[in-house]
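hi support,

uploading two proteins for the ticket. first:
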Amino acid sequence: MATLSAYPDPNPNPFFLFPTTEQTIHSQESLPQTQHHPSSDTTPLSTPPEALPPAPPPSLLHLSFNQDYSCFAAGTDHGFRVYSCDPFREIFRRDFGSSRGIGVVEMLFRSNIFPLVGGGPNPQYPPNKVMIWDDQENKRRCIGEISFRSKVRSVRLRRDRIVVVLEQKILVYNFADLKELYRIETFANPKGLCAVSQGAGSFVLVCPGLKKGQVRVEEHYASRRTKFIMAHDSRIACLALTHDGRFLATASTKGTLLRIYSTADGSLLQEVRRGADRAEIYSLAFSSDAQWLAVSSDKGTVHVFSLKINAGSPGTDRPRSASDPVTSPHSSLSFIRGVLPKYFSSDWSVAQFRLVEGSPYIVAFGHQKNTVIILGFDGSFYRCQFEPENGGEMTQLEYHNFLKPKAAF
């Protein structure tokens, strides 16, 4: 059961662009009234700087890209921050005070509306509530909330919908008035797996089904249609949709094989292999033209796969011609496929980038041609470029630690 609350004077138009100024806002309700936080251009006090110990960097609780990969948001144990990917820079941060954690923060393209969920040892908001934050200048406050009886696992957005993911249930709301449209029962979903399309005129939602390894596809065109895909034998570990919702990528808890499906009919279009050993898949991402798929895992390597689907128009999915960019390389023993196990005839990644193992990473494709953006929970930002014709190791173009003070950028 969910309850709704709309605060006075809600923002009637939630699609304002971010302000260009970079500011830090402290909520006085969460800070002692006697505590003073001077701005960076304030004349320093007479106390020598070396006498003041540097503040420790915040701990990351959440990372997510916006819908077109132009920005990303970070939830920390102090609040949340928003960054631009190209060029890389911090756009703004909202600090609620020490030990005031935000466990989920999502973006709607570059609008000023942010669903927030408290997280960490000392959450800013209850973990069973979605708080709708309006960052429009002269407001910068919560304008509504949606309450549940259980913990919110994730939130997904599009211009007309808010999707809230609980442990075994997904609720879909109308964005304009927060009216519940329908709800979906799912298999146990502690990671909050869910993806929604962003194309105008259609709405596709994918999430775990009711069985292990099953994916549910909800299509909303002229009418609502539901289909189920038995994607894997093991539990679903990660999934992603193309922007228009036509193609679905899935990975299981084994983490060896990634599969690409058509959401229109549920058919398997392609299967690619990350590796032979078990791995935890952290994220999957399609390129905007659906020619490439990126994946990150706990093995410390980001892979880019070439896809053999044609994203030009519905109903024309086919393998690429010989004039198209290189496809994923096959094993050197693929000439005896059918005799040896399927492993030897698998499609492997075209390009790779090696990272330090141990820290989770999420990936997306950059707006520059053939580039990949990698975000780490250690605060790392990488921009890498891959060679579509020859493949191999990606070239690192850029690196930043976005948890450092803004002056260090």
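and the second one:
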Amino acid sequence: MDGEINSFIKVWLFTITSLCYCYSITGRIPPGKYRFLSLLPIFCLFLSLPFNLSSFHLGAPTAFYLVWLGNFKLILFSFGLPPLSSSTGAPIPFLHFILTASLPIKITQTRLKSPDKSALFAVKVVLLAVIIQIYDYRETLHPNVVLALYCCHLYLGVAIFLAMGASLARAFLGVELEPQFNKPYLASSLQDFWGRRWNLMVTSILRPTVYDPIRRISSPALGARWAHLPAIVAAFFVSGIMHELLYFYFTHVPPTWEVTSFFVLHGVCTAAEVVAKKTLTDNCRLPRAVSGPLTIGFVALTGRWLFFPQITRNGLDEKAIKEYSILVNFIKDKLLLSH
């Protein structure tokens, strides 16, 4: 565990040093292809850094922050686009640049102070701890119960890690941040689930990097009314590819494309849902009490079919569960040594 923590520290020292270089070129290289070319070594470095980590709970967030969010933000930065570039073209504050580039945060434009969510965070931690304890008996549980536990674990785990990163940034920057989740279990449709409730940091980075460009390209051929349909599918496709890459960091096996198929399926279904909303009247739409459970059920069942098999087949679930006990024992040993 000590060796893994040392590797984790080294990875993030390399990250911060690299981002200092990125910040230094703001006034030297104007936005465009030359700034993009100057950042190619950083893109490659961020792709390689997660290979230095073997633990799931240190490596997965690092890969997600750097390989996906970090690189995509730097691509936008290379062309002078937010969140690492200001609308005026002037450099944003140094600390804002470093934290925004390396953490899953987006500074909100509103001045209203968000409510204290420390109690909600504590509840999520407790619920995750309960789920981990229940895993000791999963051999005796019905597969559908295990599926429900995995879905809850995925949501709670991602929400907790993203909230930890946001708390760090909020403490340093003293600014309000946009929410990372918005009660996805209350989603009334796939469009609502993926676009307005689940992992909003991914949504906010896919929109300017994939959705908006594809929509602009499609507009001349399809018109403004339907150009967003291929843009939706393209955004889900890229999300699937990035998930395949994140899986590869920890399985080291060739992708089976199940996860990509999961996201492409949801992209096609979301696009079909958008078409249905445009063509059907309000009287033909399902009430929220019906559409909500159908949405969550569809996400869970397709997840069992296409999303989770790649995790369970390669033992990532077992690895993640074992790491919790290793972490607890590590903390206990450190506390005993401190006394």
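thanks. also noticed: The CA atoms of residues 179 and 200 lie 7 Å apart.
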